[in-house]
Specification:
This protein is α+β, with helices and mostly antiparallel strands. It has 10 helices and 5 strands; from the N terminus they run βββαββααααααααα. Strands 1-2-3-5-4 form a 5-stranded mixed barrel. Helix 4 packs across helix 6, helix 8 packs across helix 9 and helix 9 crosses helix 10. The longest helix has 17 residues.
Length: 191
């Protein structure tokens, strides 16, 4: 499995790039979001997912691990192949997709080209539980970059607590000076 590529960007198109890694040029399919994040720098790092089919080995690249994780979740849904998943990731960023799934927003998912009502509902049903445990950015959770809160919430989610309940519990006890351990212990008393 090829998990990451670091090399020189030889060619850049909206749907694919070629990255030279130690003399080998890898053709990598990308989303429009990744295309925008690559910029014009010659050095590139992409997190990748290799899809092996009977007739081809296809490499998909992502600017962030979160986007790669969302891709992996999307292709696990019946009826969503790698190309449809890339269209979804080109239309919305991963945290927008996660939010639409968590809030059961069929219209947002259905607004993506090639996604009908049944497929949108299947995405929500299949991925809702997985999205509750996923945390994409600390800014989306608390409106600020607070790593102690982020780490405490991640720990509570890994213990199986509901994301909204865990966030409320952390908010009740957080004053800004607590360590991760103090936040977790305080939230556990409330939960």
């Amino acid at each position: 499995m090829i998990g990451q590529l670091r090399g020189r960007l030889i060619e850049k198109n909206p749907t694919e790039v070629i990255i030279d890694c130690a003399g080998v040029g890898y053709e990598v399919k990308i989303s429009l979001n990744t295309f925008a994040q690559l910029g014009s720098e010659e050095a590139a790092v992409l997190f990748t997912r290799l899809i092996v089919r009977e007739d081809a080995h296809l490499l998909y690249g992502f600017a962030t691990k979160e986007e790669r994780e969302m891709f992996t979740h999307l292709i696990s849904v019946s009826g969503i192949g790698p190309n449809t998943a890339m269209i979804m990731l080109s239309s919305l960023v991963p945290d927008e997709i996660a939010h639409a799934i968590q809030s059961e927003d069929v219209r947002t998912i259905q607004s993506i080209k090639g996604i009908g009502a049944k497929t949108a509902q299947r995405v929500i049903i299949d991925l809702k539980d997985k999205m509750v445990k996923m945390v994409f950015t600390t800014e989306n959770m608390f409106g600020q970059n607070n790593t102690n809160r982020f780490d405490a919430l991640t720990a509570l989610l890994s213990l199986g607590f509901d994301k909204k309940a865990a966030e409320k519990a952390i908010d009740k006890i957080a004053t800004g000076d607590e360590s991760v351990e103090q936040l977790i212990k305080g939230a556990l008393k409330i939960l």
